[in-house]
Design goal:
By secondary structure, this protein is α+β, with helices and mostly antiparallel strands. The chain has helices at residues 3-11, 29-36, 42-50, 124-132, 165-177, 261-268, 292-300, 330-338, and strands at 15-19, 54-56, 59-60, 73-77, 95-98, 102-107, 156-162, 185-193, 200-204, 207-209, 217-219, 229-239, 245-254, 306-314, 321-325.
């Protein structure tokens, strides 16, 4: 951050509004903002746009190159200044494996991976800084040291963190390759509403930010967004009070790893995750098909039913193929038990 940014944000954490004049018709958003707010650097302004802090006539804009139209009203929200670096915090971690190059964590549901707006402390990064000290890789930047991939706040399970840049680069290359030429394995357990038509299948549907909800992802037309492929197989089916199947336990294997990928893909095929507060809200009434015990369990389950149960990769230094497994956490196991005996 530039010094001018710090001074400006230190005095302002408010909304700024501008009306596009006729002479600014067709101008790029980033250029317009740069001339309108010279106190902020172009880099900072671009970051604010990409972070969803700019709207045009009330609708979010996340494209710095967006061409403007005369008469449009732009609003920029300036968040309060944040600490440049996260602080080390003594937060307990479940460590599955650790050596001089990397550490594999079994993350509990509710733990945010890295600091972000609304979660500046109490994150996995804060815990890692206390556990690893200065040994974490710097490639991820000050707020994401060592972080190669992430899990949503309310998704539990396995996650690998790099302790040095060489390891970070090696792991990042494997994740970018999606395991197509190496041993990368990422398998999740998910509880779905309803039962997919086929025992196993593949969802190949590109993802991008939702055009209407900045905090959500959405399936988009081929040729747009980023490639996203999820393979799934049904492991168990559960019946409702009337005896008909109403839920399924599936194994989802990622071929790519996009934000909210499994959650969006399963919702896309009509079977969102039980407990998903974003992509499964339209299925809340499905709990009415369950018996009393199962209904109470589902309605009290406070997160999406998703657990990263298997993680495998080649060690960047030794080349050894490593594979780790995480048992279902107690809340997930209890939910399955309350759904009753699986159908034959």
């Amino acid at each position: 951050m530039h010094e001018s940014d710090e001074a400006f944000l230190g005095a302002e954490s408010d909304l700024l509004s501008f009306t596009v004049t006729d002479e600014k018709q067709g101008e790029r958003l980033d250029r317009f903002l740069a001339t309108s707010i010279p106190e902020l650097s172009r880099t900072r302004l671009k970051s604010l746009v990409l972070d969803g802090q700019v709207t045009m006539d009330g609708a979010p804009i996340d494209d710095p190159g967006q061409k403007l139209r005369a008469g449009a009203v732009l609003t920029l929200r300036l968040p309060e200044a944040e600490p440049a670096e996260p602080l080390a915090e003594n937060i307990p971690l479940t460590i599955v494996y650790e050596d001089d190059d990397l550490v594999v964590i079994d993350k509990p549901a509710g733990l945010v991976v890295h600091p972000a707006s609304g979660h500046q402390t109490g994150t996995l990064v804060n815990a890692l800084l206390a556990h690893c000290g200065a040994s974490l890789s710097g490639i991820g930047g000050v707020k994401r040291p060592g972080i190669v991939h992430r899990l949503d706040k309310d998704t539990s399970g396995l996650l690998v963190v790099a302790k040095n840049d060489r390891t970070h680069q090696g792991l990042a290359a494997q994740f970018a390759d999606h395991g197509r030429t190496g041993p990368l394995v990422r398998t999740y357990s998910a509880l779905l509403w309803g039962v997919p038509d086929r025992k196993s299948g593949t969802v190949d549907a590109p993802l991008d930010r939702s055009s209407t909800h900045r905090d959500r992802m959405a399936v988009v037309r081929p040729g747009r967004g980023r490639e996203a492929v999820t393979h799934y197989s049904i492991e168990a089916r559960f019946a409702g009070e009337a005896g008909a199947p109403v839920a399924a336990l599936v194994a989802c294997q990622l071929e790519t790893g996009r934000t909210h990928q499994i959650r969006v893909h399963m919702a896309h095929i009509g079977h969102p995750l039980i407990g998903d507060p974003v992509y499964g809200t339209g299925f809340k009434t499905k709990s009415g098909l369950l018996g009393q015990r199962a209904k109470a369990a589902v309605e009290s389950f406070s997160r999406q039913a998703l657990h990263a149960r298997e993680l495998g990769f080649a060690h960047p230094r030794s080349g050894e193929e490593l594979l780790f497994e995480s048992p279902l956490p107690p809340d997930f196991e209890a939910l399955i038990a309350d759904l009753g005996s699986p159908l034959a």
